[in-house]
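Re: weekly structure request thread

Next one in the queue (200 aa):
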Amino acid sequence: MLTTIKPVAEKSLRPLAAIFKNVNPNVISLFGLLFPVLFFICVYHELYVLALVVFVFNGVDMLDGMVARMSGKVTAFGGFLDSTIDRVADFTVIAAFGFAGLVGWNIILPLLMFTYLISYIRSRTELAAKGTLVASVGFLERTERLIGVFIGLLLYAIFPDAQLGGQNIAGITCIILLLLSVFTVGQRVIFAYQKLHTLR
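Done, posted below.
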């Protein structure tokens, strides 16, 4: 849904990408893992303000693709590596709330499953369509989910004792993200059915 802001974000990052145009884009992709790991460590040790600062730097995961296009180094493996690292980063960011004891695993595990389903259904739909479809439909894509995580942690850091129905703000945020993820999976399954059921 918020993917329309990507061109704006890329425009603001273009000067930074130009600095790294001689760096291998795959190295930048791997470097991007540092920030989710630091976020995990900060959340686990209750350093929430620092976690939020680190989280902002997750935006550098756009740099690898920008550098690849600037330097003419776009490769199929680069796209594969970037997508794979995004999945690792998603797990690290979301699981941090479970390992830190902020949100119960009964919420975190289903959220992780539907998070992966959203990306899996897209890739499987596009594979089945043999490159004739872009299946980035649905309400909650990766950008929205990460923004939701950021807002949830920010509100929890400000109001750590606030609760609703026995859940703190971080838990409520994850429940909302879970429900929206389930809805998005449904949207993508319906899209896949509408577009693929006549294909052989």
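The beta strands are 163-164, 167-168. The chain has a mean pLDDT of 87.
Next request, please.
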